[in-house]
Amino acid sequence: MEWIIAIIFLIILLFVLTHLRPLSDNEIIQLSNKRRNKSIKKYFSFDSKEYNVNKEFKSKMKSDGKFYDVNINLYKFPSTAAALLKYKKHEWILVGFEKSQNIFYMWANKGSDRKKVSLNLPFDEIINIGSQENASSIMIFHNHPNINPYYYDTSRPSDQDVQSARNLSDTCIQHGINLLEFVCERGAHNRYFSSYSDKFYPLGDIVAGVKNSNNISKIGNLSLHIQRIF
Predict the structure, then answer these.
(1) What is the C-alpha to C-alpha distance for residues 73 and 216, in angstroms, rounded to an integer?
(2) Domain range summary for the chain, segments of one domain joined by +
(3) 54 in helix, strand or coil?
(4) Residue spans of alpha helices (H) in the chain
(5) 97: which strand partners?
(6) Cα→Cα distances 39→35, 36, 161, 192, 193, Å
(7) Which CATH architecture has domain 55-195?
(8) Residue of 230, 201, 229 lying closest to 41 (CA atoms)
(9) What is the DSSP letter of 211?
């Protein structure tokens, strides 16, 4: 047992001695990407619980499409959207505009049948609104009606859903807007696509912060390496 403790101590000592040096340029980028990804993950953390929503509002959603002024916290919005789409017998699509972790505007329309749904307005208009309002993100939800939830699981995106999201993300990224897409089933939301603009938590700013912390002290260098590796 003592020799195991001794080996562990030597490994830790070796790690410390070899990581007192400052980060290299590649290691700075590695740590910066890790910090950015962590910040994005924290920003887009969502409640997974099922919600109840205003039944009157839900029943009066315009099938041919309408914009709604809303004020919904980002953390709660996916569950709210899933609740609005719950029990819908046709496919619906819902678009939320996000800024500063708040949904301030929303569009919803019904599909032409139970098998497919599309926006009843050009996506360019969605982009224009997002740009004019300085939205950080566009969030798109659609439901997959399930004729028998005891036997079928319709919570996964179709190949067409994924391809469509990829195509739309190119336009969003060009305008500096994030895109997140979800499938909703029985009041639950499943995020299946995310793309983030370079303007969102800019990597250059994070790199500058890491560089300012790099090579201040050997203990500081060790701390940066630990953050990078673990």
Answers:
(1) 39
(2) 2-43+202-229, 55-195
(3) coil
(4) 2-18, 25-43, 55-59, 77-85, 123-132, 159-174, 203-213, 218-229
(5) 105, 138
(6) 6, 5, 27, 19, 18
(7) 3-Layer(aba) Sandwich (3.40)
(8) 201
(9) H
Tens digits of pLDDT across the chain (230 residues): 788 998 999 999 999 999 999 999 999 999 999 999 999 999 999 999 999 999 999 999 999 999 999 999 999 999 999 999 998 888 999 999 999 999 999 999 998 766 677 899 999 999 999 999 999 999 999 998 766 665 667 778 888 999 999 999 999 999 999 999 999 988 999 999 999 999 999 999 999 999 999 999 999 999 999 999 99
What gap in Å lies between CA 140 and CA 94, rounded to an integer? Answer: 6
The DSSP bridge partners found for residue 143 are 184
